[in-house]
Amino acid sequence: MGVWPIWRRDFIRFYRQPNRVGGALGAPLLLWLFIGAGFGDAFSPPADIEMGYLEYFFPGFIALVVLFTSIFSAMSIIEDRREGFLQSVLAAPVSRAAIVTGKALSASSQALAQSLIALIPAFFFLDDFSAAKAGYILAALAALSFGLSAFGLAMAWRMDSTQAYHSVMNLILMPMWLLSGAMFPLTTAPEWMSWLMRFNPLFYAVAALRSSFYGVEEAEALTGVSTVWAAGVAIAFGLVGFAAAVWAAQRPEA
User: Fold this and answer.
1) What pLDDT, in 10s, does the model give residues 17-38?
2) Which of 48-52, 208-212, 250-254 has the highest mean pLDDT?
3) What does each C-alpha distance from 45 to 57, 68, 213, 219 come to in angstroms?
4) Per the CB 3.0–4.6 Å rule, which of 142, 150, 232, 249 could disulfide with 96?
5) Sign, CA torsion 172/173/175/179
6) Could you give the CA distance from residue 207 to residue 210 in angstroms, rounded to a whole number?
7) Under a CB-based contact definition with an 8 Å cutoff, are residues 205 and 180 in contact?
8) Euclidean distance between the first and final Cα of the chain, in Å?
C-alpha cells in the first residue's frame, strides 16, 4: 500500500521535465564519445581480445547514465520535503518502508528507462544480440539501477539541501565510478589502485554488466573477477543500499 502512487507520481514527474532527461543522457554520451575518441589509440586490451576503446568504454558509459539518473531521482526526496509533500505522505497511514520502496523503485525505473535508450549504439558493435543476451543486459541494468538509487536515497533522506547532496554524491559516487573499471581494466591498473577497485561495489556491478555485453570469458579476462561473484556483489550492494535507506527513513527526526 502506498508504493504504486509514489512510484507513479515520481515517474511521471521525471518525464515531464525534459531538461532532466536530456542532461542525464547527454552528458554521459558526450563523455563516451570524447573520452573514447581521445584514449582510443592508448588503449591496449588483454591478449587474445580484439576490442576498441569505444567498445570497452560502452558499459561504463551506460553505468554513468544510470548513476546520473539515480542521483537526480533520489534528490527528489529533498524537494518533496521542502515543498511539504513528504510531510503529507509521512502523516498518511503508510509505513516508511513502503515510502522508501516506492521512491527506490521509481528512481531505479527512471534510471533503467534512460539506460535502455542509451543502449541504441550497442546495436552497431554487438553482433550476436540475442533474446538471451537482452535478458542478461536487462537484469544487470536493473541490479545496477536499484543499487545506485537505493544508495542515493539513503544519502538524501537525512539532507535538507540539494547543494550539500550534490557535493557529497560527487565526492563519493564519481570516484566510485572512476574506480569501477569503466575507463580502464583492473589488469592494467597500478597495484594500489587495483586494491581500491576490488573494494568498490560499483566495480562488480560494472563487471556484471560487461559480462552481459561481451560474454563471460571475455569479461572475466577484462575484469579479473568471476561473473557469478560480480553478480552476487551487485545484488548485495542493492540490498544493503535499500536497508540503509529504510534505516535512515525510520530514524526519528531531530
Assistant:
1) 777 667 667 778 787 878 877 7
2) 208-212
3) 12, 27, 16, 11
4) 249
5) positive
6) 5
7) yes
8) 27
Reported as a single tens digit per residue, the pLDDT across 149-158 is 999 999 998 8
Cell reading at 29:
554520451
Asked if 159 and 78 touch (Cβ cutoff 8 Å), the reply is yes
Contacts of 155 (CB under 8 A, 6+ apart): 74, 165, 168, 169, 172
> Quick one: 91 exposed, middle or buried, by C-beta within 10 A (0-12, 13-18, 19+)?
exposed
CB atoms closer than 10 angstroms to residue 221: 17
User: By the 8 A CB rule, do 211 and 230 touch?
Assistant: yes
Helices (H) and strands (E) in the chain, counts: 12, 0
What is the distance between the alpha carbons of residues 93 and 95, in angstroms, rounded to a whole number?
Answer: 7
CA–CA separation, 145 vs 19, rounded Å?
A: 20
Name which of 195, 31, 9 is nearest 89 in CA terms.
Answer: 9
The predicted-structure confidence for 168-180, as pLDDT tens digits, reads as follows 888 888 899 999 9
Residues in the chain: 254
